Amino acid sequence: MRKILNLLVWVLVTSCTNSSPLEEETVIKLEVSYKVNDDAFTDYGAEIYIYYGYDYGLFQDYNYVGNGQLENERERIEPDQKFVIESEKTLYIEPRYRDRTIHLLVEGKYYDNSFFTHAYSSCEYDIDIKIFFADTSLED
Q: N or C: which end of the chain has fewer CB within 10 A?
């Protein structure tokens, strides 16, 4: 059931469009929201970290220690870019590298311990991401 839920979340929050070939500017369009009951609100203060050029298993081999830093027993990795959802609902990011693997880590602000991670093989085309964090605790 958890695998099905993860797949559903991935399908709902991530989509790529074929509207921007490599010769043109590409952009990562990102919206971060939180849900309370059935209402969604922009998650102002959410932090977005971008890492370039790492293998797909980056987040499996490291622990997140805060402020975008990942570490394991051998090393600590700092993010290549950091952004914050401030006054606008949508954040537009021009990637620093379009031909490298891109890992995104989004840390929600409204709910404690709310994270989203995803890797892309490159940013040859625009990336459009809508993330909804929700309270997943079970009530007794």
A: C
